[in-house]
Write a structure and sequence with these properties.
Blueprint lengths: L1 H18 L1 H18 L2 H6 E7 L2 E6 L2 H9 L1 H12 L6 E4 L1
Parallel strand pairs: 2-3
Antiparallel strand pairs: 1-2
Helix pairs in contact: 2-5
């Protein structure tokens, strides 16, 4: 009986997290950590801010040439991030 109660509580919490803004915040933090872990210090040093919401990662960069170069490689960057995350969270990247 106790095992069933624990499972029900876990299911309720999982459902709550999936439907709340809390999940966006958790996913956003995972994506931010992955960005800085995966990409070299050069890219990280030009990254001014990251914002993640509903599958869209907005990356503000301080270098226009880097922004252009990364924009040309969006698909590869998305695949690389999602592979590192072990989940398909990032559907689009917008460089600002």
């Amino acid at each position: 009986m106790e095992h069933d109660d624990n499972k029900n509580i876990k299911d309720l919490l999982d459902a709550f997290i999936r439907r709340s803004a809390f999940k966006d915040n958790l996913d956003g933090e995972r994506v931010r950590k992955a960005w800085f872990r995966l990409f070299d210090k050069n890219i990280a040093s030009y990254t001014m801010s990251l914002d993640f919401k509903e599958g869209v990662l907005k990356v503000r960069l301080s270098s226009a040439p880097l922004r252009e170069e990364l924009s040309r490689n969006k698909k590869s960057l998305i695949e690389h991030l999602n592979r590192a995350l072990g989940d398909i969270l990032v559907h689009e990247i917008r460089f600002l």
